[in-house]
């Protein structure tokens, strides 16, 4: 009897020890250091590889190279319920989580490691309809550039990565222009997965307030249609309520700089250069998590974890609705006749937001001797604050049937292909009427911004010439395809993040041929004598513009630009629009 009792006690002891060892073995660096440290890049890779070896639901694959020469890693969790039902009528919902786009903001890196472990071990309820995918560290070069000082405003962890990537690009400004290998690799992953929900984990800058968690959903008016309504009226409120039930307060991203939130603030507008602006182009329901920089690292990670758990619960409950609203949004775009290119905040449509902040004062700076802002955490408040999360279109464009792109613009063609855009080479000589743009005006940044001197306030003039298209020299790109929004946002010069505004077409802005004044003088005289209408316009211009009248070169140039000698390429946008054929 004593031997039997001893044997049972030994079995219980060994079983308990083994269980503790497994638990310890699955601990993350974050947990092992009581929330003080974040895993290094190599530790992140090793952890996911260990999970993949232990759990068949988890798969680790290497995708395209990044600027650091390291491949981008994709980790997927496919629930058993999904894996055994491969013959289901529709593919499962997919949630894609992006981490470490700014590796100095590593909250999501650690939170997602715990999320995947807890999904695999059964600590979290089993998913039935949702596949979870993550890019564990998007900015690998920045993660390898580890330090403890570059996040000036941030409260932990002890060490972290740097914002710039291996070529010092801010990757959350690169999605549409795709200057980096990282962005190309991301596009490959994105179009392979076609995610329904996208989460990008960040840490905020800005004001001081009581919340650890803030959310930055893609702008719902811009997403538009049923998808935009669902995001704004159901997904966001449901996430807020779930987090509140879990005792995690959350508020919209506090979009202020060196000002107090109680003055009111607007929603951040995520154009396609940003991750959620890019994913919106395919009607994905996107959001950024922005934890508060001044809160300790441990609750920031724990809050990020809880938010992702809540989002998965919403995905499971609403998977049919999410599929439907995304599908319907694409149908709406297929039949739309116009598309908004630029937006502005609608200041007349603000709503009241109960906000938990801290009182602040303007005091004299002990550094500069001038006024400074100082928050006082001993004076918390709850106040109704004006929040403006409605945007209205400023400029719209008629959607063409197709675009015509000369084959020589290979950088543009490459990006279209990377983004799963369908196109066909014109194989026969063709003459047809097109819509053509001439760049009428634009402004340019005076300082470098993410490797570019970006244009803005672009304005075009439209003509409808008959053009001859030589076989093999143009691609025809139909707009009615999954990437319709991507095409309109990149190929319409007036769009905020168009390829024109990102300098892809700058060679058309420089005149290649000119004139020698002493030669052109005689030709200009002959031109005026042979063209009475031009001569009349020339005289009127000199009469009405004193500066022009005293500038001999400006006068000769004005005439040259109205002659047959003026080159056709200058300021003429090379991408044509094919409009719907009239009956």
Question: What brief labels describe this structure?
Answer:
8-stranded mixed beta sheet; Aminopeptidase; 583 residues; disordered N terminus; globular; 35% helix
What overall form do the CA principal axes indicate?
globular
Radius of gyration: 29 Å
Low-confidence segments, ≥5 residues, pLDDT <50? 1-22
Strand order of the largest sheet: 1-2-4-3-5-9-6-7
Helicity range of the residues?
25-40%
* Overall mean pLDDT: 94
Class from helix and strand fractions = alpha/beta
Can you tell me the CATH superfamily of the largest domain?
A: Zn peptidases
Distance between the termini: 98 Å
- Give the CATH topology of the largest domain: Aminopeptidase
Please state the second-level CATH architecture of the largest domain. 3-Layer(aba) Sandwich
Overall strand count: 21
Number of helices: 18
- Largest sheet, described in full? 8 strands, mixed
Percent of residues in beta strands: 15-25%
As for the number of domains, it is 4
CATH C-level of the largest domain = Alpha Beta
């Amino acid at each position: 009897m004593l031997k039997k009792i001893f044997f049972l006690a030994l079995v219980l002891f060994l079983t308990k020890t083994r269980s503790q060892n497994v638990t310890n073995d699955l601990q993350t660096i974050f947990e092992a250091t009581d929330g003080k440290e974040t895993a290094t890049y190599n530790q992140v890779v090793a952890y996911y590889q260990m999970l993949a070896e232990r759990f068949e639901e988890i798969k680790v694959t290497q995708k395209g190279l990044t600027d650091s020469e390291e491949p981008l890693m994709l980790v997927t969790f496919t629930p058993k319920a999904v894996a055994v039902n491969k013959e289901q009528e529709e593919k499962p919902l997919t949630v894609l989580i992006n981490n470490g786009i700014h590796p100095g903001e590593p909250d999501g890196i650690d939170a997602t490691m715990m999320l995947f472990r807890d999904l695999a071990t059964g600590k979290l309820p089993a998913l039935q309809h949702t596949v979870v995918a993550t890019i564990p560290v998007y900015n690998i070069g920045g993660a390898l550039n580890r330090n403890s000082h570059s996040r000036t405003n941030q409260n932990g962890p002890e060490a972290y990565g740097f914002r710039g990537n291996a070529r010092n690009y801010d990757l959350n400004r690169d999605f549409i222009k795709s200057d980096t290998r990282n962005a190309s690799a991301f596009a490959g992953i994105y179009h392979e997965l076609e995610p329904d929900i996208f989460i990008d984990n960040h840490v905020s800058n800005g004001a001081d307030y009581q919340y650890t968690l803030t959310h930055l959903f893609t702008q719902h008016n811009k997403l538009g249609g049923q998808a935009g309504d669902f995001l704004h009226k159901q997904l966001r409120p449901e996430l807020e309520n779930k987090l509140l039930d879990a005792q995690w307060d959350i508020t919209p991203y506090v979009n202020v700089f060196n000002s107090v939130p109680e003055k009111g603030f607007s929603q951040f507008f995520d154009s396609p250069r940003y991750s959620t602006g890019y994913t919106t182009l395919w009607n994905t329901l996107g959001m950024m998590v922005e934890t508060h920089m001044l809160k300790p690292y441990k609750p920031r990670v724990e809050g990020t974890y809880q938010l992702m758990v809540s989002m998965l619960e919403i995905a499971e409950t609403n998977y049919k609705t999410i599929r439907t609203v995304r599908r319907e949004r694409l149908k709406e775009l297929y039949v739309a006749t116009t598309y908004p290119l630029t937006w502005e905040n609608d200041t007349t449509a603000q709503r009241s937001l109960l906000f938990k902040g801290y009182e602040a004062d303007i005091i004299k700076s002990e550094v500069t001797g001038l006024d400074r802002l100082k928050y006082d955490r001993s004076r918390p408040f709850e106040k109704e604050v004006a929040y403006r999360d409605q945007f209205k279109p400023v400029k719209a464009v008629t959607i063409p049937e197709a675009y015509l792109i000369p084959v020589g613009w290979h950088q543009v063609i490459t990006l279209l292909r990377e983004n799963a855009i369908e196109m066909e080479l014109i194989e026969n000589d063709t003459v047809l009427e097109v819509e053509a743009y001439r760049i009428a005006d634009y402004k340019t940044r005076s300082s470098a911004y993410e490797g570019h001197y970006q244009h803005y306030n672009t304005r075009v003039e439209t003509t409808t010439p008959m053009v001859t298209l030589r076989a093999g020299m143009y691609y025809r790109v139909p707009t009615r395809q999954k990437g319709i929004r991507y095409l309109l946002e990149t190929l319409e010069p007036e769009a905020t993040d168009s390829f024109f505004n990102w300098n892809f077409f700058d060679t058309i802005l420089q005149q290649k041929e000119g004139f020698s004044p002493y030669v052109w003088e005689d030709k200009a005289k002959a031109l005026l004598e042979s063209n009475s209408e031009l001569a009349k316009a020339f005289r009127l211009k000199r009469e009405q513009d004193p500066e022009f009248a005293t500038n001999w070169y400006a006068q000769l140039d004005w005439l040259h630009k109205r002659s047959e000698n003026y080159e056709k390429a200058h300021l003429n946008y090379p991408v044509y629009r094919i409009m719907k054929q009239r009956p």
